[in-house]
From TrEMBL:
The keyword Hydrolase applies. This is Endonuclease/exonuclease/phosphatase. GO terms for cellular component: membrane. GO terms for molecular function: endonuclease activity; exonuclease activity; sphingomyelin phosphodiesterase activity. Residues 17-235 form the Endonuclease/exonuclease/phosphatase domain. GO terms for biological process: GPI anchor biosynthetic process. Keywords: Endonuclease, Exonuclease, Hydrolase, Nuclease. SUPFAM superfamilies: DNase I-like. Its EC number is 3.1.4.12. Gene3D superfamilies: Endonuclease/exonuclease/phosphatase (3.60.10.10). The keyword Acetylation does not apply.
Amino acid sequence: MHGESSAEESNSSHRVLSYNIKRGYGNDGTTDLPRTADVISKLHPDFVGLQEVDERCNRSGNVDQAQWLGEHLDMHAAFAPFMDYDGGRYGMAILSRYPIKKTEAVELARGREPRVALAAHVTLPDGNKLTLVNVHFDYIRDDTVRFEQATKVREFIQSLPNPAILLGDFNDTPESRTVKLFQDGFVEADKPADDPYTFSAEKPDREIDFLFASPESQWTVKTVDVIDEPLASDHRPVIAVLQLKSN
């Protein structure tokens, strides 16, 4: 599903990956962060939004997982904690090929656990600015808090002076009001119709991980793939090639 190349080849394409890594804890019952790194490396992303990341937690061998993955993948890393956990902190991370100029943890409504959205502001090689926003919304069945969290994230992205990419584990499905909130004014990285499911990795039967780009007028989605990776996590990775149009 590669699009036609336009006359404006100053347009910049970016490989963007969303992956709930479950702290490197695989479906074989072992924590294996090098295996997680290998899955990511093979996809050659420019930007990665990671959910369920440990920072020096006992259960994961006291490793600063965001820093470790950044070093092993030769990428810049940012981490935002949700909460203190098991001797360390638990949260989410963004990896970037380009230097991260600034990070923000946008506090969201509290559900079963505390939640933030992690925003990483980067300057692209052509001088354009881009913000990556990584989310992991509340997982309980009642969507009240999840929708409130999504509303706050939408407001944050719409307040930005530059283009943005939103990615993460939405813990909700395409027809939900949480996901529909981003289908207006954003470009959605639509997954292949014959393979849209992102969870569970072993027996995929629902689509809960998403990528969007804003504003709609500045982006083109080139390709989207859900990766068949049944072992490294309970989620499947989603990779999209997004093209930012020239100003």
